[in-house]
Amino acid sequence: MIGDRVKSLRKEKKMSLTELADQAGVAKSYISSLERNLQKNPSIQFLEKIAPVLGVTVNSLLDPDSGEKNVDSEWVNLAKTAMESGISKEQFKEFIEFNKWRINQK
Predict the structure, then answer these.
(1) What is the mean pLDDT of residues 19-48?
(2) Which CATH superfamily is domain 2-62 in?
(3) Could you tell me which residue ranges the HTH cro/C1-type domain spans (predicted)?
(4) Among 18, 46, 44, 11, which residue's Cα sits nearest to residue 32?
(5) Which of 15, 20, 30, 48 is the most exposed place for a label (fewest CB within 10 A)?
């Protein structure tokens, strides 16, 4: 069940219900009811808020066997910040290639 998955991921991150709720901008009571399997059908909007905080994708919340790896929430937030600042995928790829080149020059 999705509530069990959320609870497990939250505990792996050593987060309290309050911390998850605050960071995701959702109600603590809703997370609690989800984790206790009282709420079994969360909205996609809700999942989109908690998934990055838990460091996973919405797909992996819905299907833990999807084979997707956990993603560090800090990386997710960094990528979002880059996108919001106007950096294109191509510019980001160029930076990565430049950084690889720079490391190899040492």
Answers:
(1) 95
(2) lambda repressor-like DNA-binding domains (1.10.260.40)
(3) 6-61
(4) 18
(5) 48
